[in-house]
Amino acid sequence: MDVLEKRKIQDCLGLPTGWKREEVIRKSGLSAGKTDIYYFSPCGRKFRSKPQLARFLGDSFDLSAFDFRSGKQLSVGARKSKRLKNIQYDYSRGLKQDASLVLPIRQTASIFKQPVTLKTNHAQNRIKADPKQDAKDVPKQVRYPDRSKMNVRQLAKCS
């Protein structure tokens, strides 16, 4: 199929006169068969999303009832989706933060802010030495017998 067969350009009835709507069907990749919608202003500028349209048009045109995918104005009572009912979206600024959507902040207690008292006079706080630990030999590094007998000059020759 030719690329021109995959594109449909038509006048957009949901926007002011002179606006064009282009529907492009993706040919390849994982999303083959999906459609991309683009709008062209009368001056030829391309728009890929509803927020871009809202920023360009500003307050001159109300896009609250405009469906970007179909290019038509929705009726006043109809909603696009139930999940979009509670979300307030201002296309010129982005999504408004709801108090319930704010991530929690991790709170950690600082040990340095608390006063520290040291008591050493009590008998129960005294540390008793463990005689078993003193009797153990400290582990020693295993060495080659000849190497421990070498002097500094001989070690320099080896390396």
Automatic annotation (TrEMBL):
Q: Which ranges carry the MBD domain? A: 5-73
Gene Ontology CC entries for this record: chromatin; histone deacetylase complex
Keywords, alphabetical: Chromosome, DNA-binding, Nucleus, Phosphoprotein, Transcription, Transcription regulation
Region (Disordered), start-end ranges: 122-159
Q: Which SMART domains does the record associate with it?
A: MBD
Origin superkingdom: Eukaryota
List, in alphabetical order, the Gene Ontology terms for molecular function in this entry: methyl-CpG binding
Q: Where is the composition biased (Basic and acidic residues)?
A: 127-149
Localization recorded for this chain is:
Chromosome; Nucleus
SUPFAM superfamilies with a match to the protein in the record? DNA-binding domain (SSF54171)
Residues annotated as coiled-coil are none
Q: Name one Pfam family in it.
A: MBDa
Q: Which GO terms describe its biological process?
A: DNA methylation-dependent constitutive heterochromatin formation; negative regulation of transcription by RNA polymerase II
Is Secreted set as a keyword in this record?
Answer: no
The answer to keyword Transmembrane helix applying to this record is no
Protein name according to UniProt: Methyl-CpG-binding domain protein 2/3
Q: What organism is recorded for this protein?
A: Stichopus japonicus
Lineage, broadest ranks: Eukaryota, Metazoa, Echinodermata, Eleutherozoa, Echinozoa
